[in-house]
Amino acid sequence: MTDLDDAPALVSLTLSFRPLANQIGPLRSLLSDLCKPHVADADGLSRLLLAAHELLENIVKYSVGDMAEFHLRLEAKATGLLIRLRTKNRAAPERMADARWRLDALAAAHDPIAHYDELIRESAGRRDVSGLGLARIPAESEMELFYATEQDWLILTAEGNASERVNG
Amino acid sequence: MSALQLSLTSVGGEGFQVTPTLTDFNLRLVFIGSGDMNATGVINEYLKLVHEEALRIGLAQVSCDFKLLTFMNSSCFKSFVVWIDTVKNSEVRYQIVFLTNPALPWQRRSLEALRRLAANLVTIETIA
């Protein structure tokens, strides 16, 4: 994971909130408005928003307790934009165990797209939860996904790159 | 009701709608809005009805027009996975075509994964 906190950000957003499903669409619109002036191409912005959406849905579906956190940081580097998304939420023990299992499998996979395809094939026969949301982030957003735990808090971090818009 | 009379109707909810039209043996489903948590149940049930209708009518093809579908979350995506898997394992199969909007890059990335699930059934086309 990259330490981003030592350089100025183009966008830095920190949100502490009680997550609700009907907040995700407006939050995605806000993130789009904040980041669009800095991201050079539609694909880069689309990847960022897809990852943000799946992380936000994850905390809406699985967090327990009143509060969760969402962070976005967009930073200009010599090689382009560095995107960092982070969520922090309390999770029930069974959800924490399931998330760790999924995230460890994701980290162990050499090819995130092949891993995603395998999860898709496995999920086809199940009629319960999708189980695809987090795996979608590295496969479709081309972002790395990390996790950490602090007691019953689950902290997810997605990092990736995009091309920076050059103005003028 | 004649065999070629469509029994499917438009469905939708807050910020999301699907509208079907039938031409000969081709069913076109136009998706409008955002396929997020509010749409998951609607899409899931609707795709089951689409498959029943496809078998009843003997459809050759179902086209999913995503030109105005701004986003699809992983739960809605999973509904398409289940649908495609159902068709794949059905004795009577039909082709599934996704019509995509090049201005919405997530569509190409997401739908390529569906095509890889059943390359002999699923095709992706771009619409202007």
Count of helical segments of chain A?
Answer: 5
What is CATH's topology name of chain B? Transcription Regulator spoIIAA
Query: Total number of helical segments of chain B?
Result: 3
Briefly note the structural class of the backbone of chain B. Answer: alpha/beta
Kindly, what is the distance between the CA atoms of the first and last residues of chain A, rounded to a whole number of angstroms?
Answer: 33 Å
Shape of chain A: globular
Which two chains have the most extensive interface, and how many residues on each? A-B, 32 and 24 residues
Beta-strand residue percentage of chain A: 25-35%
Radius of gyration of chain A: 16 Å
Count of individual domains of chain A: 1
Strand order of the largest sheet of chain B: 1-2-3-4-5-6
Helix content of chain A: 40-55%
Structure description:
The complex is a heterodimer of chains A (168) and B (128). Chain A is α+β, with helices and mostly antiparallel strands and 168 residues long. Chain A has a single domain (11-162), classed as Histidine kinase-like ATPase, C-terminal domain (Heat Shock Protein 90), CATH 3.30.565. Helices cover 42% and strands 30% of the residues of chain A. In chain A, strands 1-2-3-5-4 form a five-stranded antiparallel beta sheet, with helices on one face. In chain A, a hairpin with a 2-residue loop joins strand 2 and strand 3 (80-91). In chain A, helix 1 (24-35) runs antiparallel to helix 2 (42-62), helix 2 packs antiparallel against helix 5 and helix 4 packs antiparallel against helix 5 (133-141). The longest helix of chain A is centred in the N-terminal third of the chain and has 21 residues, at 42-62. Chain A is globular and about 50 Å long. The mean pLDDT of chain A is 92. Chain B has 128 residues and is an alpha/beta fold. Chain B has one domain (11-126): Transcription Regulator spoIIAA, CATH 3.30.750.24. Chain B contains three helices and six strands. Chain B has helices at 40-57, 74-88, 105-117; strands spanning 11-13, 16-23, 26-35, 61-72, 95-100, 122-126. Chain B has a six-stranded mixed beta sheet, with helices on one face. In chain B, a hairpin with a 2-residue loop joins strand 1 and strand 2. Chains A and B meet through helix 1, helix 2, helix 4 and helix 5 of A and helix 2 and helix 3 of B.
